[in-house]
Amino acid sequence: MPQDVSGTLEIFTHRGNTVHEDSSYDDGDDEPLASKRKRANSTRESVPNSAPTWRKCEPSYSSAPQRTSQVNEKKNYVCEELKILNPVQIFEKLFDDDIIDLIVSNSTVYAKQHNRHEFELVPCDLKKFMGILILSGYHKLPREPMYWSLDEDIGVELVSKAMSRHRF
């Protein structure tokens, strides 16, 4: 008997099929409760098998709006505007300073919410990160760390000079 129990103890002992204690013990207590449970087969049989029935039919499409002259004029205007820009200028039109600042601020909030309070991001680093992602889409290597490799035939010097592997 444990010595570290404070108060009084009740000890129940089993001898054969009887319990020596002043309780109302019944032989029905030895039956598993699962045998007392009613089966739900009657409800399963009453629900019909509601499998969907598939049939072939021709698709019906809603009519697409016809291009108006105003839409064509705007399209031509955008094409003319972008035709004189180089790829970096087009990128900067899509990701202007407001969008970059929004991404930076939300990334910082996300990092703080996930207990990375030392995380800092500046717009210049975000642009470098996005540039590395775009470059990695064109210049494929089997593994990401290979972009920072010191081997002449593997490493990409442009990437390693722009941002450290740990910062990436």
Protein architecture, described:
With 168 residues, this protein is mainly α. The protein has a domain at 121-168. The protein is 40% helix and 2% strand. It has 6 helices and 2 strands; from the N terminus they run ββαααααα. The protein has helices at 41-46, 69-83, 87-94, 97-113, 123-138, 157-162; strands spanning 14-15, 18-19. It has a two-stranded antiparallel ribbon with strand order 1-2. The protein is extended. The model has no long low-confidence stretch (mean pLDDT 77).
Span of the ends, CA to CA: 63 Å
Total beta strands: 2
Number of helices: 6
Gross morphology: extended
Gyration radius over CA: 36 Å
Structural class: mainly alpha
What letter string, H or E per element, gives the SSE order?
A: EEHHHHHH
Major sheet summary line: 2 strands, antiparallel
Share of helical residues = 40-55%
Mean pLDDT: 77
Uncertain stretches = none
DSSP strand content: under 5%
Order of neighbouring strands in the sheet with most strands:
1-2
InterPro entries: PGBD, PiggyBac_TE-derived
GO molecular function: sequence-specific DNA binding
Protein name: PiggyBac transposable element-derived protein domain-containing protein
Region (Disordered): 1-70
What characteristics describe this protein?
single chain; 168 residues; mainly alpha; two-stranded antiparallel ribbon; 6 helices; 2 strands; 2% strand; PiggyBac_TE-derived; sequence-specific DNA binding; PiggyBac transposable element-derived protein domain-containing protein; PGBD
Task: Annotate the secondary structure layout.
Blueprint: E1 14-15, E2 18-19, H1 41-46, H2 69-83, H3 87-94, H4 97-113, H5 123-138, H6 157-162
Antiparallel strand pairs: 1-2
